[in-house]
């Protein structure tokens, strides 16, 4: 299985994983079990997705069925949500998430957003999402250095093998490198042909940070949320369709291969078993340099997952 070697630990992270965002809670356990059965060895989840216990049940069933051992799952990735950035809450949340998954450790633990919101006790509401009980957004003054040092303690305590970032830009990454004992091993970003973020990817290569792309199909994931911002479907774009036809592949496979061939990991999700298998097989062909250039040329800087759409004080990409 094609993989990326993480710089600090030497652990191999598969290039193609299974993302758990919007995986239906009532079918999540079965979907995760089937994903593992199909060959997925990277699972990407988050407390904000609200399906951690069900995903963990799918992992438990796969292990009990003899499909895999825990160590065969090269990367189970989880994210620290915005309301748990204070130093006293980071490890506590990691332990809760591990308990929900039924695991002893995560392979990778990420800071979901460089945003700190007012703490919400999990006993009161979990996942806490973006808002207080009154529907308003409440910020909290926790600096990144405090959160990152607490993340490093998560590694020291054996709760996670690797730590990283998500939705962070260059200036913040550079700042973290100034004080980090354990440097970020992975950066997870929105990445598709409408938002290529090439300078950020190049910075990560310079620092030896692996990059994982989410929302690889662009607007498709946001249509049902009414948040696709009027963008045309990449899955039906003429350039993508022509390449797919020439290769005898699906447009989704072309979009995924555009990323993996350039060294990025991808974490597509699907509640459909056929597409789940199809996505995993995206590395069975190569694109020409001209095809990669043509796809990259679709970049229009369209960011679909932007917290500023929730509150103007959350303009982390400004």
TrEMBL record:
Keywords assigned by UniProt, alphabetized: Oxidoreductase
Oxidoreductase keyword on record: yes
Which is an annotated Pfam family here?
Aldo_ket_red
The entry marks the following residues as binding substrate, namely 112
- According to the record, the signal peptide region is none
* Keyword Oxidoreductase assigned: yes
Q: Which domain of life is it from?
A: Eukaryota
What is a GO molecular function of this protein?
oxidoreductase activity
Q: Where is the active site?
A: 49
Q: Which residues form the NADP-dependent oxidoreductase domain?
A: 17-298
- SUPFAM superfamilies the record matches: NAD(P)-linked oxidoreductase
Q: Which family does it belong to?
A: Belongs to the aldo/keto reductase family.
- What is this protein's name? Aldo/keto reductase
